[in-house]
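Field notebook, page 298. I keep forgetting to write these up properly, so this time I am using the form the group agreed on. The chain and the ligand, adenosine-5'-diphosphate, are recorded exactly as supplied. Prediction of the bound pose follows.
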Amino acid sequence: MSLTLERQQPLSTYEGWQTFVDARPLPEPEPLTKRQIRSLDDRARDEYDSARRAFHRDTLVRTDQLRDANDQLLDLLESNMQGVDRVKGAGVIDAPPGLGKSTTLNQFGREFHRRQVARYGETMEDGALHIPVCRVWFAGRMTTKSLNGMIFDYYAHPAGRFRRRSATEHNLAATAAEAAVRHGTRLFIVDDIHFLKPRTNDGGQVANQLKWLANEYPVTFVFAGVDLNNSGILEEGRLLETAQTARRWTRIPMSPFTVLTEEGDAEWKKLVKTVESRLVLGRVDQEVQAQGRRVSMV
Ligand SMILES: Nc1ncnc2c1ncn2[C@@H]1O[C@H](COP(=O)(O)OP(=O)(O)O)[C@@H](O)[C@H]1O
Ligand SMILES: [Mg+2]
């Protein structure tokens, strides 16, 4: 099973998202020497290795890029939340795979969630759960039906189980939007948006629904995807453009590390150092170290 699946699967429901939001950093496994590791019995070694793997996977490196992205996204959310009448902007990270788009958005979503709950509490006035963030991701061929289905599933909305045949797509979209309003959702994270093909019938309808949601409801959309410039999604602000006003996009830059500039080189070295300091590797046995020193002194 790939890491992406492991992480994404549970985040498809608000319970999974909540667990992610509440998760505290894992404790660092006790560093052992290689000899100590070898002397563990199979079961203990297996447990130790899986604790180390989980600890490494859990490590988030707060790179300058991640910090900048957080600041920009927070600015966007705060300014969107200040005035309902103002034209709302959407955020977008358009970058090649593997650069940390999903990590950045999940991390930001988690911090935003905690902040909103600290400000406004865990429940809404009518007792409904306060769920500040909804997160969906695109895959394969997206239709309004699959988009609404994802939203219902996220909120555990009964419409997800009892989708009435007679319900029109518009009704379903309105029901999905009401779920977001009922739970005080302010941020919609839409990951892997490159699967949306706005020039096809299905894709055009999905784009229209997203547009409609963003216009009618007080939610800010933040998208992540690959090669969006050439997919017709960002072209002329297409996806979220309204008839009257071209929407403002906040583009969050995300680029690969480079050692070709002084600044890039320093950032890269900082990353390697941070990763190194977090790695729990089997330490060389004392005697071997001592022997090594003796040899080098000879
Ligand atoms: N700041 C970070 N700290 C630690 N690991 C990271 C960070 N950014 C990305 N990663 C790791 O790099 C891999 C790719 O990141 P991901 O967010 O899935 O990229 P993308 O969504 O751009 O394809 C993942 O395994 C992720 O855990
Ligand atoms: Mg991703």
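OBSERVATIONS:
- The pocket of magnesium ion (ligand 2) is lined by residues 101-102, 191 (CB under 6 Å).
- The first strand starts at residue 90 and ends at 94.
FOLLOW-UP: compare against the apo run.
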